[in-house]
Amino acid sequence: EAGVAQSPRYKIIEKRQSVAFWCNPISGHATLYWYQQILGQGPKLLIQFQNNGVVDDSQLPKDRFSAERLKGVDSTLKIQPAKLEDSAVYLCASSRMGTGYSYEQYFGPGTRLTVT
Amino acid sequence: AQSVSQHNHHVILSEAASLELGCNYSYGGTVNLFWYVQYPGQHLQLLLKYFSGDPLVKGIKGFEAEFIKSKFSFNLRKPSVQWSDTAEYFCAVTDTNAGKSTFGDGTTLTVKP
Predict the structure, then answer these.
(1) Can you spell out the DSSP letters for A43-78?
(2) Which residue of A has its CA nearest to B89?
(3) CATH for B65
(4) Chain A residues with beta carbon closer than 8 angstroms to that of B92
(5) Which of A91, A80, A81 is nearest to A9 (CA)?
(6) A45·B94 Cβ contact <8 A
(7) How many CB pairs under 8 A join A and B?
(8) Residue B70: is its pLDDT beyond 80?
(9) Count of other CB atoms within 10 angstroms of residue A72
(10) Domain that holds residue A45
């Protein structure tokens, strides 16, 4: 099966600009996650979708970050305006849902964002 | 709130040495536990998982981990490491009630040939 797709792979922007990332999960995976991974740290969950509904967005800085998952398939994460501290790798992951599934996540290659 | 602690930030071993990476979590409910690995230039991928049954689980490439519920631990082991095991290793916990995942900060393993 095809893996999780993300684009772009790299992005360099200036602070106060906006940026958007796209993710296409594995076909049939109802749950989609966006993580922020700052250098030297583990992935931090920003938002979790189940189909097109939000399950958890408690760590999403909502004054500047937004995410949507229209039609319960692909998703976009937007930052507007960007700050220097947003420099990180943004990971998208997906997993199946339902009884008997273990929440095992499949990760995309990530988007490395540099804010200057 | 759940949290995950990985004890070692960077481990350096020679080939054939034994490996144990520590992972402790804090959460009072039922959890699923994972070790993910990221080889240089590659995606994060699953190494092994525990969600029920035998607390000693085996994963790919000879890795295993033991879930000790009383200690809230899920340590990763391998009896003899290879140069190709050089990678970053992440422990993760998923709360089975809400499905929320928390990752540790990772351990970078360097295996010298």
Answers:
(1) -EEEEEEETTEEEE-TTS-TTTEEEE-GGGS-EEEE
(2) A42
(3) 2.60.40.10
(4) 42
(5) A91
(6) no
(7) 58
(8) yes
(9) 14
(10) 5-109
Torsion B81-B85-B88-B89 (CA) sign = negative
pLDDT of residue A98: 63
Q: Do A103 and B106 touch (CB under 8 A)?
A: no
pLDDT, tens digit (0-9, with 9 covering 90-100), for A59-115: 999 999 999 998 889 999 999 999 999 999 999 999 987 655 668 899 999 999 999
Residue A114 lies in a domain: no
B77: β partners: B20, B64
Number of domains in chain A: 1
Mind listing the pLDDT tens digit for each residue in B23-54? 999 987 888 999 999 999 899 999 999 988 99
Query: Taking CB atoms and an 8 Å limit, are A55 and B98 in contact across chains?
Result: yes
Over the stretch B21-31, which tens digit does the pLDDT of each residue have? 999 999 878 88
Question: By the 8 A CB rule, do A32 and A90 touch?
Answer: no
CB contact under 8 A, A104 and B44: no
Does A104 contact chain B (CB < 8 Å)? yes
Find the domain containing B72 and state its range: 3-112
Q: Please give the tally of structural domains in chain B.
A: 1
Instruction: Give the pLDDT score at A14.
Output: 98
